[in-house]
Amino acid sequence: MISRVLSALSRLPGWLWRSTAGRLMARPPAASRPAVMAEKEEPRSIAGITLRASLVVVAVVLASYLLYQLRLLLILVFLAILLAAGLHGVVRTFERFMPRILAVLLAYALLIGAFGLVLFLIFPPLVRGAVQFADDAPRIAADLRAGVISLIDGIAGAGSGEDLIDSLTGGAQDALPEIGSLLSVPLTLVGILTNALVVIFLSALMLIERDRVRGWALEFIDEGDREVVIGVSRNALLRLGSYVRAQLMVMAIIGVGSATGMLILGVPFAVPLGALSFVTAAIPLAGAFIAGGPIVLVALTVSPLTGLLMLAWLVVLQQLEGSVITPYIQGRVVNLSAIAVLLGVVAGTSLAGIVGGIIAIPLVAVADVVLRDIVFPLRHRADERRAGRSEAAAL
Prior knowledge:
By secondary structure, the protein is mostly helical. It has one domain (73-160, 191-382). Helices cover 87% and strands 0% of the residues. It has 13 helices and no strands. α5 (100-156) runs antiparallel to α6 (160-183) and α5 (100-156) packs across α11 (286-300). It is elongated, with a radius of gyration of 36 Å.
């Protein structure tokens, strides 16, 4: 049988013989090859995808760990950017009359001088008030004890007030060791001053080396995207400068409001304590307690009733500041929704405490700029391309 086939093929023309032999010696039909190749390549492709996914997960974990370890540095850099954005307009004004480095030095000299003046106004009266309060403390404590006992006895019956005061006193004594442990936090005064100096010097260098820093940063951006990045950074700096001005307005309202309440109630040292409220208003939540404690203590030297009224005034002012004043002013000046401001402060404080509350609104402002200048335009262009393809398909 085989000999007959070979003899028949030998009588074919040469070109037909070569073509037929080539087809006979070829690989299996094409229809069967993709299935075999797919079976061989499928495990290989799955392994590659798994490897790439594992590398991405490891890279994300390492980057997150690195950012967490450098969180203090990142916060200091962001605060320096915030301070530089707030002083940028002042430096630009001074640059009209002097070189940039002198303009920066003058701006920071004025800033440090103003801060020193506030400290000079605050601390001497506070020391005198503390001494006066220490002298009057026994009398104030006795008056408060007698007033509370008489009030509780009138409501719950004779003897109830004395028992309640004794139980509260015992609980306070038991809590003293825990309070002492809470006060021994690692944020010492030296560390705070060191970080403040780092922020000041870093922000000053940012203003002095503004053009060089911008040119260095743009080296990492493609030439086609540099215009967009420059526009986004410019708008973000404008928003941050607006935030600083709005925050100064809020601080001024809190300081004036506290001083006004003290003047109405006849509390001494109204001006320096109002200046203290102005400074601590920059600290969300904790600022009210830092300034409110000395104010209430000084008010107690007048009378227990004055101390209670002063405390009520500060509580109302704090509630207005957190729920109305800050969201409204920051929303109007920084061009943010009051709801976004309020939610940002709450979220920042919940995630990172006092520091998170301080940087929450600037971060929300920068995120809003990124959304408006990058994300939304990309979305609009994608919608336009999709609509164009739909029209072309319809034609």
